[in-house]
DNA sequence: TCAATAAAGGACAATTTTATCCTATATTAA
DNA sequence: TTAATATAGGATAAAATTGTCCTTTATTGA
C-alpha cells in the first residue's frame, strides 16, 4: 500500500508527535529504536519531512526532531504520505494503466475510485494531535 | 497497491475472459498486445494462473489461454490477486508492522481495517463474467 | 510424418527500492 | 574554545521486483 519509506516516515512522525507532546525532542537514535527502522534510512526520510516543513529539527547536543503544538493540530497523515509517496495511491489506476479516468476508465475504475477516496478522506481527517490523544489510551504500539 | 505482476495478471485475465466469452482462445501474443504488457513476463504470470487452475491453456497451433463458461462465473478478482500477490494487501499493517492486530494494534489499525475489508469485499464480489458483461457497454479499456 | 505454432520453464539481466557508509556542518554545554 | 552530539547529504551497496532470452515440450494441420 505505502512504500517502506512512507511506512517508516509515518511511524516516525507519530512518535515525534508523541514526544513533542511531552515536551521532548526526539533524536534520530531514539526514533529508529522506538519505531524499529534503520537509522540511516530513517534520517533521509526525516530530512525530506523537514525540508517540506512538516516537522522541525535542531542540531547539536539536545537537538533532535520535533513539532510545534500548532503544527501537530494541522499536520495530517495525508500530508506525510503526500511528501513521501506523492498522490499516486489515490490517482493511479488499480490495474496500472497510465490513462484511466472517468472518461476513459478501466473496467474496475469506478469500483476503485470509491475505495481510494475513502482512504484519502481517512488520511486527510486524521491529524497528529488526534493520534497522540488516542495513543494515551496506550493499547497501541509503533514497533515490530 | 498491487504488484506489476498482479496488474498485468488482472488485465490479462479480463481480456482472456472477454475472448473466451466470444469463443476464442487468446494467445500470449494477442494478450500482451491487448493489455500492453511485456510478453515474456506475462507468460510467467499466466503460467502461475494456469498452475493454480484459475485459467486453462492449450499448446500448439490454435492453442492459447482460455476459460470455461462456468469458471468465468466462479472466478473472482480476489482469487487472481490471491495467487499473484497473496493476501498481504488485506492482512498487512498499513504502517508496516509485523505484529498488528485487534489485540495489539498500531495507531491506525482500526482505520485501515475498514478500508481493507471494503477492498477485499469488492474483489470477492466481482466475477469475471460480471466484468465481461459490463465491458459490452464498451466505454472501457485495458490498454495504456 | 513434418513443419509451424504455442505454452513451459530455467537462467540471467536491468531497474527500482531499500539500506548503509562516510564526511561535512551546525549547535550546545562545559 | 573545545569536545561531544546531532542533523545534512553525497556516494555506494544490497535486495527485491521487473523484465528478457533461449531451449524444451506439446499439439495441430497439411
From TrEMBL, chains A, B:
InterPro entries: Tscrpt_reg_Rrf2 (IPR000944), WH-like_DNA-bd_sf (IPR036388), WH_DNA-bd_sf (IPR036390). It comes from the Bacteria. GO terms for molecular function: DNA-binding transcription factor activity. GO terms for cellular component: cytosol. SUPFAM superfamilies: Winged helix' DNA-binding domain (SSF46785). This is Rrf2 family transcriptional regulator. It comes from Gelidibacter salicanalis.
Amino acid at each position: 500500500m505505502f512504500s517502506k519509506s512512507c511506512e517508516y516516515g509515518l511511524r516516525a512522525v507519530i512518535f515525534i508527535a508523541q514526544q513533542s507532546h511531552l515536551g521532548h525532542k526526539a533524536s534520530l537514535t531514539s526514533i529508529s529504536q522506538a519505531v524499529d527502522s534503520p537509522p540511516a534510512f530513517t534520517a533521509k526520510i526525516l530530512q525530506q519531512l523537514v525540508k517540506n516543513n512538516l516537522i522541525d529539527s535542531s542540531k547539536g547536543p539536545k537537538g533532535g526532531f520535533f513539532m510545534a503544538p500548532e503544527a501537530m493540530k494541522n499536520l495530517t497523515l495525508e500530508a506525510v504520505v503526500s511528501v513521501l509517496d506523492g498522490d499516486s495511491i489515490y490517482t493511479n489506476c488499480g490495474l496500472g494503466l497510465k490513462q484511466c479516468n472517468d472518461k476513459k476508465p478501466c473496467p474496475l475504475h469506478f469500483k476503485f475510485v470509491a475505495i481510494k477516496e475513502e482512504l484519502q478522506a481517512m488520511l486527510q481527517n486524521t491529524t497528529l494531535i488526534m493520534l497522540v490523544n488516542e495513543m494515551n489510551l496506550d493499547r497501541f504500539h509503533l514497533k515490530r
